[in-house]
Amino acid sequence: MISVKLIRYTPNGERLVAVSAKQSLSRKPFMYQWDKMSDSEVEVWIKETLKRNHFSPWEHSVYTFVIENCSRVCTHQLIRHRIASYTQLSQRFARMTGEYFGVVKPPRIALNKEAKRIFDKVVKESYEAYLKLLDMGIAPEDARYILPQGVITKIVVTMNARELHHFFGLRMCVKAQWEIRYVAWRMWQEVMKVHPLLFKWAGPRCITVENISRKGEPLSLKDALSGKAGFTIERCPENIPREQIPICLRNAAKILEELK
Ligand SMILES: Cc1cc2nc3c(=O)[nH]c(=O)nc-3n(C[C@H](O)[C@H](O)[C@H](O)COP(=O)(O)OP(=O)(O)OC[C@H]3O[C@@H](n4cnc5c(N)ncnc54)[C@H](O)[C@@H]3O)c2cc1C
User: Fold this and answer.
1) Active site residues
2) Number of helices followed by number of strands (H, E) in the chain
3) What's the CATH number where 13 sits?
């Protein structure tokens, strides 16, 4: 089962973003604002930066996740996001054998008897060929060429709050593939536990685009999902018309239930 855990984050990250944002306007020392700013003012400043698309102060709050048992297909998509740091299990130095060998099976294949049979057969053959090559003295870095793309891996990922917003916009969307979408929704759940003020208005791009043009209070992902608040944009960046966006959003979130 794919595991996504937030293991480190900037303490007081919400305050850090809010006070940093205020630095551009206030002549008072940083620590004065740090000590004096009330919690409600922290929320006001975060909301202001969000509405004005002034995200540079968000870069000061940083998050490290450990993602395990996802496929290399998924990490290949993940590492396309360049404003981040990554450390991944090496297939050159670590042998993918015994309990450390596994392949993520897409749900649509797992549910189709014949597709599952073909998938399992080829995975088994590929693994056996890998073992054989290692037995022959072939280096793991060369033997691994025979492994499927779905082979499991683990990766440490560090992103700041600005990049996370961008990443969530692209990868929580229903257009993103199911596995990275699951990882993105789980990462969002993790950061919501620690910094809800920074992430309650994050989500797929329908939410972020809505919040750039929206008048008054930003739209939170939870309110959009529950139907408590609606969209004002005519179409999302993926061209879904306003009335269908909530359905699309709920379809994107279903991955959390499907992979539980
Ligand atoms: C649904 C979906 C389908 C995709 N399909 C494909 C595909 O078929 N083929 C494919 O190759 N990729 C595909 N991608 C990957 C996509 O093209 C991006 O590489 C990936 O989403 C990272 O996005 P990004 O470049 O915006 O973000 P990041 O790398 O996270 O960067 C964040 C932002 O920083 C800025 N930035 C970063 N680096 C630079 C730079 N060098 N110059 C200028 N500005 C920069 C940009 O504003 C960028 O949006 C797909 C992505 C999605 C979500």
Assistant:
1) 171
2) 14, 4
3) 3.30.1360.170
